[in-house]
UniProtKB/TrEMBL annotation:
Entry keyword annotation includes Oxidoreductase: yes
Record-given protein name: Deferrochelatase
Annotated ranges, domain Dyp-type peroxidase N-terminal: 77-221
Biased composition range(s): Polar residues: 10-25
Lineage: Bacteria, Bacillati, Actinomycetota, Actinomycetes, Kitasatosporales
Coiled coil, from the record: none
Job of this protein: Involved in the recovery of exogenous heme iron. Extracts iron from heme while preserving the protoporphyrin ring intact.
């Protein structure tokens, strides 16, 4: 779990819906927001795990959460650089027997139409369930990707990127193949659980006879406005999780996270896209919670209270890897998670983490089935996730307390322009 956290989307990409912008009464859920839209823009600047845009000094009122809206159309798909969302669903589909390129194109067209409407705070185009009738957009994002098997199923093998080659095996893997991979992948996130479920149900219904669910996972994060000020999220181990994520303001951000229009070796339909690595990482919480606070901090390499490196300072202070204590021992242990995942210790390899926590109940032995739905983004997984995970595999102190139980790699094309559907350049190119 390389230690990085998601950046906040620019305020231009996340806006407040207001009753005045509703298409018509009875159709748009935004019309039901009342005066919430008047304060919704506050969250657009500060919502999420870390507010990289201008942030207010006080907590965001929860009444404004529903008014916040992400954009469906754009250079990149939504759900990549947006701030962490309170509720998420990850779902993979396999095309039905006999379904091919034509059926896939029709499906992506339906999905894109539904996603655009729901993200705007409107009802689904047909047979809406009314689950989210009383809510606004709530920062809903819907993101679509293609798995390795999708290209053989649709006769598009020549368009399959080399970067989509299967991930190598790692020693920490205990993968359930039935909950891994898939022809198609959909990521849904929102700041309201009913809004997220509504989108999940609509996407599933839109699949019709063209595709069936292969696996589905549910996650959550802290709700925007729950803390006095925007801050890095905590994971289920109680640690601030994601201090060193790349930021959109970094000069090389786009180069690391998004596929360029030319010169990458990727097919042209991937321009503006990114690659998502998805891992279900179980946290062995019973074992973790038996450790002393000092032991936990040595495993991570950071203070549990504020995320500061053990070498001193605050959360954002650069870690001093050479600092020693009075006995001459390194203050940040050699196998500390934060040391191993630093880009300057991995040839500059960096990923954009955008995870959800999960809890799927209690096992028969009383252990919680809980952990992280790890989602990371990069322009090339062979230069992003793979070298970092190989390094972690060789000696991360955290490995003793986690288990990788499912995995997937998906090519996520660039955003759809007005009048287009996601993946159109691939399916109709």
């Amino acid at each position: 779990m390389p230690e990085q956290s998601p950046p906040q989307a620019p305020t231009s990409a996340r806006t407040a819906a207001s009753p005045e912008t509703s298409p018509s009464p009875g159709v748009s859920r935004r019309a039901l927001l009342g005066t919430a839209g008047a304060t919704g823009l506050v969250l657009g600047a500060a919502g999420g795990a870390v507010g990289y845009a201008a942030a207010p000094s006080q907590a965001t009122p929860l009444t404004s959460v529903g008014a916040n809206m992400a954009m469906f159309h754009g250079k990149h798909q939504p759900g990549i650089t947006d701030g962490l969302q309170a509720k998420g669903h990850l779902v993979a589909f396999d095309l039905a027997p006999g379904a091919g390129r034509r059926e896939a194109a029709a499906l992506l067209r339906r999905w894109s139409t539904t996603a655009e409407r729901l993200m705007a705070g409107e009802s689904a185009s047909s047979d809406d369930t009314d689950v989210a009738r009383d809510a606004g957009p709530s920062s809903l994002t819907v993101t679509f990707g293609f798995g390795h098997s999708f290209f053989s199923r649709t006769g598009l093998e020549k368009q399959r990127p080399v970067s989509l080659d299967p991930l190598p095996d790692f020693s920490s893997d205990h993968l359930d193949k039935s909950r891994s991979d898939g022809d198609l992948w959909v990521q849904i996130g929102a700041d309201d659980a009913l809004v997220a479920f509504h989108a999940l149900r609509a996407i599933q219904k839109d699949a019709g006879s063209a595709a069936k669910v292969r696996w589905q996972m549910n996650g959550f994060n802290r709700t925007p406005g729950a803390t006095a000020h925007p801050m890095t999220a905590r994971n289920l181990m109680g640690q601030l999780d994601g201090t060193r994520n790349p930021r959109p303001t970094d000069a090389d951000f786009d180069k690391r996270i998004f596929v360029p229009a030319s010169g990458s070796g990727d097919p042209s339909w991937m321009a503006g896209g990114s690659y998502a690595v998805v891992r279900r990482i179980r946290m062995l919480l019973d074992d973790w919670e038996k450790l002393s606070l000092t032991a936990q901090e040595n495993v991570i390499g950071r203070r549990k209270s504020n995320g500061a490196p053990l070498s001193g300072g605050s959360e954002k202070t650069a870690m001093d890897l050479e600092k020693t204590d009075a006995k001459g021992d390194l203050v940040v242990p050699l196998n500390a998670h934060a040391r191993i995942t630093r880009p300057d210790q991995n040839g500059g390899a960096a990923i954009l983490r955008r995870p959800f926590s999960y809890h799927d109940g209690i096992d028969a032995d009383g252990a919680p089935d809980a952990g992280l739905l790890f989602v990371c983004w990069q322009a090339d997984p062979l230069r992003g996730f793979v070298p970092l995970q190989r390094k972690l595999d060789r000696g991360d102190a955290l490995s003793k307390y986690i288990r990788h139980e499912a995995s997937g790699l998906f090519a996520v094309p660039g955003g759809a322009a007005k009048g287009e559907y996601v993946g159109q350049r691939l399916l109709e190119g």
